[in-house]
Each structure stands twice: as C-alpha cells, then as structure tokens.
C-alpha cells in the first residue's frame, strides 16, 4: 500500500510553453502525443477530436502579447503511455482593416529524445522566429494583397530557410519554460521575384506583356510599369508611397 501511494504521488512531467506574439497576431496550436519508445500499444485512427492531440486557440490582440500554456510531457490515453512529440502552430495576422486582409503561416516545435548523457540545466529555452509581409498584385484590378512568411532565426539572429520553431530535447523541458518569440520585419518584400523593381521612393510593378498579364515579369531593358490598386482604393504607381 505504501508503494502504491508513493507511485500515485509522482507528478507527471510538465513544462511551460510561452509564445510572444506581435500586435495583431493570433494562433491555433496543437500538442501532439504518440506512444512512448518501447511501447507496443497503438491508438485508433479517428476523425474530429482526438485525446492525444491538445488544441489551443488564441484570439487577436491589437498589442504585442505573451501567451502561456502549461503542457504535460507524458499522457496516458486508453491505457497507452504517450509522450509529447511536437507542438504545431497556425499563425494568422492582420495587414489591413478589411475582413479579408489576413495572412497566415505555420510553425512547429519538435521534441526529441536524448539517448544518455547530460543536458543543459536551463530554466528557459528560447526559439526565435521572424515573419515578413510579402506583397503582390492580384486580379484584373491588380489589387495589392499580402502574404505572411515566417522563418526561424539562429542564435545570432540570422534568418534561416527553415520555418519558425525548431527542435528541443525532452530532457531539457521538465519543470522549465520554453519560449517561442515571434517578431515581424519592418521591411516588406515582393512575393515573387522579377516582378517589381526598387526605386528610392518604393517599388514599381512591372507591366509584363500587357495589363492582362497576371504574372507581369520585368523585361530586361527599361521595363514598362503598370499601376495597381491600394487597399484603400487608390490607384498608385509606387508601393507603398503611392507616388514618387
């Protein structure tokens, strides 16, 4: 009885997940669990709500904010011991005032096992990501639209080709805090290369073959330019200043 009581009192391993969000951002996350190493049990394939997948949602905030979530590293579902394998994120951000002025991208944190050895005793682990708005024109009116692109940053703050998030070791997490810090670049870039040319006052949109050319790639020599429509309805020649 004493042994049973002792086992029952052992708390499950947990950690704190913090996500620092820029203004006008929200996200949905899903913590995914699967059978622990060496376990022969399996979980049924099912649609809809799954107990081995913890879903979390955060609403838009007009100011930069920090969201905190307490997550277990181990779970037992239908008698099957599970461990946390990943946390996936769907990030959404507003770039304008209309309901459709929204962009999104995904990120993920992967939790890996460590075979032996010691792990750093850090109280806070930090992963950094940077998002950037990419602009383009769309439709017969050549209206400005924006796409959100989020990538990871290395320890020196250099932008990487990989998506925001990263990899952490399971042994680093129990009782500690994992912080995912997201930021937004001040600079916007064209979504597609060779379609805009940069000038001192902003970007000009290449015409392409004609005004009906939705791709509008730049010609090699002195390309002609096209006008485009800003989100507020203005007809402009330079983005984002509208005129030179």
Account of the protein in words:
By secondary structure, the protein is an all-beta fold. It folds into two domains: 12-35 and 53-114 and 121-184; 192-240, no CATH class. The protein has one helix at residues 2-8; strands spanning 14-21, 25-35, 53-61, 65-72, 74-77, 80-94, 102-112, 124-138, 143-153, 159-163, 165-169, 177-184, 189-190, 196-199, 202-206, 225-226, 228-229, 235-236, 239-240. Strands 1, 4, 8, 9, 10, 12 and 13 form a seven-stranded mixed β-sheet that branches. Strands 2, 3, 5, 6, 7 and 11 form a six-stranded mixed β-sheet that branches. Strands 14, 15, 16 and 19 form a four-stranded antiparallel β-sheet that branches. The longest helix has 7 residues, at 2-8. The protein is elongated, with a radius of gyration of 24 Å. 16% of the residues are buried.
Which structural traits does this protein have?
53% strand; mainly beta; 244 residues; disordered N terminus; 2 domains; six-stranded mixed beta sheet
Cα-atom radius of gyration: 24 Å
Shape: elongated
Order of helices and strands: HEEEEEEEEEEEEEEEEEEE
Number of domains: 2
Number of helical segments with 4 or more residues? 1
Catalogue the unreliable spans: 1-10, 116-121
Cα separation of the termini: 82 Å
DSSP strand (E) fraction? over 45%
- Integer average pLDDT: 88
Report the major sheet: 7 strands, mixed
Quaternary state reads: single chain
**Structural class, from secondary structure content?**
mainly beta
């Amino acid at each position: 009885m004493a042994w049973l009581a002792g086992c029952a009192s052992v708390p499950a391993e947990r950690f704190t997940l913090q996500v620092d969000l820029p203004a006008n951002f929200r996200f949905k996350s899903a913590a995914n669990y699967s059978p622990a190493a060496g376990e022969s049990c399996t979980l049924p394939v099912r649609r809809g709500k799954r107990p081995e997948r913890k879903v979390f949602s955060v609403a838009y905030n007009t100011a930069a904010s920090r969201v905190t979530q307490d997550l277990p590293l181990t779970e037992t579902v239908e008698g099957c011991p599970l461990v946390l394998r990943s946390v996936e994120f769907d990030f959404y951000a507003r770039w304008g005032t209309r309901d459709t002025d929204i962009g999104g991208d995904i990120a993920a944190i992967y939790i890996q096992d460590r075979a032996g050895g010691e792990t750093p005793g850090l109280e806070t682990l930090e992963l950094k990501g940077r998002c950037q708005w990419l602009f383009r024109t769309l439709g017969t009116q050549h209206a400005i639209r924006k796409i959100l692109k989020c990538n990871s940053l290395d320890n020196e703050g250099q932008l990487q080709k990989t998506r925001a998030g990263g990899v952490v070791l399971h042994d680093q997490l129990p009782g500690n805090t994992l912080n995912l810090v997201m930021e937004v670049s001040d600079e916007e870039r064209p979504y597609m290369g060779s379609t805009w040319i940069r000038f001192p006052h902003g970007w000009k949109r290449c015409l392409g073959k004609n005004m009906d050319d939705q791709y509008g790639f730049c010609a090699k020599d002195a390309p002609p330019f096209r006008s485009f429509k800003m989100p507020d309805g203005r007809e402009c020649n330079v983005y984002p200043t509208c005129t030179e």
